Amino acid sequence: MLIRDSFAMITDLRRNAPGIGHWGAALNIPHVVGGLIFIQQLEALLVLVTCVVSVMVAAQIHKRAPYSRLTSIVHVVWLPLFPYLVMVLMARPEVDIYGAWLAYVAVTMGISLVLDARNLVLYATSRDRQFEGTAS
């Protein structure tokens, strides 16, 4: 059920909110694929687990309140992970494919956290509780 709900959410977003669907793909696909490729690294495992769990929880929110900005709350687990990834990345002396993946994850995670903060403020302070481009 959790996986089916996740795919239903992704399908809904791609169909009715393509900008969010594209951003979700750019955010989640590299995080999951890299997490699987580099799974022996603690950081990769943490990224993989938080990404998969976040999508499954967001799907449950979406199931009950389609296109809700409240789905941004799922990335709260990234608040401690983001600075940790930045510290690990800055401490790496070599530039390699793993470092490039970590940099991509840190940049997209940072952007997402800013967008999430905006969405949660809008959700809490206005009637604008759904993502742009979706029907009320």
Strand and helix layout:
Elements: H1 2-16, H2 18-37, H3 42-64, H4 78-91, H5 97-125
Helix pairs in contact: 1-2, 1-3, 2-3, 2-5, 3-4, 4-5
A few lines on this structure:
With 136 residues, the chain is mostly helical. It is built from 5 helices and no strands.
Which descriptors apply to this entry?
136 residues, mainly alpha, 74% helix
Overall geometry comes to globular
What is the domain total for the residues?
Answer: 1
Work out the helix count: 5
User: Distance between the terminal alpha carbons, to the nearest Å?
Assistant: 26 Å
Listing every helix as H and every strand as E from the N terminus to the C terminus, the arrangement reads HHHHH
Unreliably modeled segments:
none
Structural class, by secondary structure, is: mainly alpha
Helix share, percent: over 70%
| Beta-strand residue fraction | under 5%
Q: What is the arithmetic mean of pLDDT?
A: 92
Radius of gyration: 15 Å
Count the E strands: 0
Largest β sheet strand count, sense and barrel closure: none
Question: Can you describe this structure?
Answer:
This protein is mainly α and 136 residues long. It has one domain (2-125). 74% of the residues lie in helices and 0% in strands. The protein is built from 5 helices and no strands. The protein has helices at 2-16, 18-37, 42-64, 78-91, 97-125.
